[in-house]
Specification:
389 residues; alpha/beta; OB fold (Dihydrolipoamide Acetyltransferase, E2P); Rossmann fold; Helicase, Ruva Protein, domain 3; 11 strands; 14% strand
Length: 389
Amino acid sequence: MTPDERLEALREHFVKLSTVHRELESQLDAARGRQADLTDDVDQLERENEMLKTSSLYIATAEEVTEDGVIVKQHGNNQEVLTEVAPSIRDNLDAGDRVAINDSFSVKQILEAETDARAQAMEVTGSPEVTYEDIGGLEEQIREVREAVEEPLINADQFREVGIEPPSGVLLHGPPGTGKTMLAKAVANETDAAFIKMAGSELVRKFIGEGSRLVRDLFELASEREPAVIFIDEIDAIAAKRTESKTSGDAEVQRTMMQLLSEMDGFDERGEIRIIAATNRFDMLDRAILRPGRFDRLIEVPKPDYEGRVQIFKIHTRNMNLSDDVDFEILADEAGEVSGADVKAITTEAGMFAIRDDRTEVQMDDFRNAWEKIEAEEDEDEDVSKTFA
């Protein structure tokens, strides 16, 4: 082999070696990346293994902080123990705090105050879009609600100067669909106070003491958010007249009502917390919850009169494309004694009739046809209920 041939062969061999070198470097980088991933996995598994081997902590309450240590009561077995606590924890520990303890009853950490998550979920964070202008035919009721709920929160100094305590609660009662819940939504929209909404049926719980605890947590949440408004819909679910029933379910409902009465008119000052409640069954309520000091204003929300129906028709049709033949006064007269919810249903159904006929304008006949359809459905529902009665 000549020198040139040998040189050419060496060059080809060098190129091959360079290619293999690059491939090996690439494989080495991939192996290093895989090693890093496996190292992270191993670290995670080791941490999880350590957590699994660590003993669980128990929940307890610090009953008393003494010079010798802390007396804690473990939840569940109510066992009281005098135990030591680290100085760093002791400086921030007060009687009544929830703490976490280990098997030796040593305090490991201080826990946050216990609050039912269901109570926190009942807080309305966004203001409803309903305003007082959206409610027709209830001028007197709106005035009374604003005086009892808004004014004490806005003009608290004026009440102090006059020398009177503001009304503590407002109970709205009347037939379904008359605007009781809309009044509460308008209050939530108009005030800067925290608004907490719940239904009475949500406070009826299965286990003993659970409903009472939820009521207590709701009022504690309101105290933390002062000023606050608590709205209880369907209050008859927990505030019905007490009977001699011995069943556990009725007894639990009555315990929940007792807790509600205590929170509404107890020894402690309630602060800037106003209560609005609503019910369709005023006749079912227990007299204890109706006395002054709990609900100082009992406001009846009746079905709208003729003028009220005209106003409600105008409210629910202000964004509708109406023909010139639509007469609200005639509609209010022909509809008779309907509720505000019925008027809204009529306007919605009238719009559906126009869409069905491929029209963009709602006519007078659409409203009449809508009312006939709603009346027929109501009569059918009454017939069905009589059949099963």
